[in-house]
Amino acid sequence: MILTVTPNPSLDRTYEIPALDRGAVLRATGDRIDPGGKGVNVSRAVAAAGHRTLAVLPLGGPAGAALAGLLGAEGIEVAGVQVAGQTRSNISVVEPDGTLTKINATGPELTAEESQALLRRVGERSAGVDWIACCGSLPRGLAPEWYAELVARTHRAGARIALDTSGPSLVAALRERPDVVKPNAEELAQAVGRPLATLGDAVKAAEELRAWGARAVLASLGADGQLLVDEGGVHYGSAPVAAVRSNVGAGDASLAGFLTAGGTGPAALAAAVAHGAAAVQLAGSLMPTPADLDTAAVTVTGDVPLDRLLTEPTP
């Protein structure tokens, strides 16, 4: 059972177009609307894999009601906290080569009472869960320390927690020793304050996050694969991808794969890589099912090529 927390969820509409031509009237070759938000996507991937999941999130207005309905249709139990503001709606535009352009709305501003209600709801529903996954940016009204408070409460309750966020929220939470943090390459570079040009740079940055409090770091490096740095050492995983259709939610699918495989060690890293590789080959933010996974194509090794250049080095 995996409980997810998404403080700033969304409705996500994705359009597939032949090319993005500014100022022109474009005709979509495909479109879909999905529940959105990083924690929501983790729940969707967990459910698609056949595991139980519960989504805790603030819901506001007609968009919030629609979001809850979409999640229910996917077999996901929702523990919503009603808020006065309107749940946000985001737009993604995907070109044939996989290039993604996103327009993310800001989302509602939560009051102090709504913030506390969200923390209480997590506590009320966390008994017996295997993992709590807290994911995404914080909405207006929540201080960067909000995730740190959630990590502390989770550990006092005896549960394990995975955190996928960035910037001040990530740095503030590290002092509470989250069990897993899952940055991408850009977020990892931002956290340590320097560019990453090689896999070795990424490993050193992940080790710094561990020194600051993270018990394990699962780093998504896009086309360059994934790194797991924990008390067992450093492991690197990769898998070939025939064609990228959309990378929306791919990192969330990776985290879901990692947690459903136990959340520790090389086997969990292999599951994360398989889920991420499958997700980028699906339309919109569709989450992979077991039939979509090519586990035989995944390679995991402890012999990390530290001098390998990253395909897209961070600035």
Using the 3D structure, state the CATH architecture of one domain: 3-Layer(aba) Sandwich
Q: Could you spell the SSE succession in H and E letters?
A: EEEHEHEEEHEHEHEHHEEEHHE
> What does the overall shape look like?
globular
C-alpha termini separation: 38 Å
Instruction: Report the top-level CATH class of one domain.
Output: Alpha Beta
What's the mean pLDDT score? 95
EC number: 2.7.1.56
GO molecular function, one term: ATP binding
InterPro entries: 1-PFruKinase, PfkB_dom, Ribokinase-like, Tagatose/fructose_Pkinase
Organism: Streptomyces auratus AGR0001
If you had to describe this structure to a student in words, what would you say it looks like?
The protein has helices at 38-48, 61-73, 112-125, 146-156, 167-174, 185-192, 199-211, 250-260, 265-279, and strands at residues 2-5, 10-16, 30-36, 53-59, 77-82, 88-94, 100-103, 131-135, 161-164, 180-181, 217-220, 226-230, 233-238, 299-301. A hairpin with a 2-residue loop joins strand 12 and strand 13. With 315 residues, the chain is an alpha/beta fold. The chain has a domain at 180-314: 3-Layer(aba) Sandwich (UDP-N-acetylmuramoyl-L-alanine:D-glutamate ligase), CATH 3.40.1190.20. 33% of the residues lie in helices and 23% in strands. One of its GO terms (cellular component) is cytosol. Belongs to the carbohydrate kinase PfkB family. Keywords: ATP-binding, Kinase, Nucleotide-binding, Transferase. It comes from Streptomyces auratus AGR0001. Its EC number is 2.7.1.56.
